[in-house]
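Reply to dn_fold:

You asked what the input looked like. This is it:
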Amino acid sequence: MLQLFTWRVVVFFFFWLFLQVLVSNAAGIDNYEEARRKMVKAIESDVRETSLYINKKSLDPRVMSVMGRVERHKFVPSAEQSRAYANQPLPIGHGQTISQPYIVALMTDLISVDPEDKVLEIGTGSGYQTAVLAEMGAEVFSIEIIGPLASKAAKRLQESGYDRVKTRQGDGYYGWEEEAPFDAIMVTAAAGHIPPPLIRQLKPGGVMVIPVGSRFMVQQLVLVTKDGAGALTTRQILPVRFVPLTGEH
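and this is what came back:
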């Protein structure tokens, strides 16, 4: 009788423990969902505040929907988990950062990604912007110059199910010539000028968004458009601050 009672206690304990894990996991999911909603609201507020710069009062609803879905906490170091959905850049190691969500949303909006577009991303970083582009339906080719970041991002993206993303380690200044041309190019590091190889790899009718300016100074986010004849037009969007584009160029 005592033995039967003991087993009942053990079974009850493990059942209780199982329920606590389920409740805890559910609470974690709810917390992240609420955090993403607040992040989206913060992005919307920044868009309104910068509307004179960006010439619009709201971003593409598809972009905002994706920003509310992609799990940013999976793309930041564990030490930054508590700030994963803050509308600010965060360190990811090796002197690099994950961009502010507002900037991620704005740059995604500027290149007007359509499903099946072929997009080149320069600067994979943690893979967060890559995931956002993939969620927009694009086929993404992403280059990261820092080896450890490149390998971690590739693994993270693969584990998250982004099978239409291709990554590689390399100098993004020279693009990905064998996969060109691209419907859109996004550069997530500041360059002193617009790299000629990227201009050549941009499809006629395509767009590029790139921060241009001096290292560790305020730069200008520039939208580059190539018309059907190959002529370029550029428009400065707003002041930004990005880590520099590095390499042997």
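Residues 21-30 have pLDDT under 50 and may be disordered.
Hope that clears it up.
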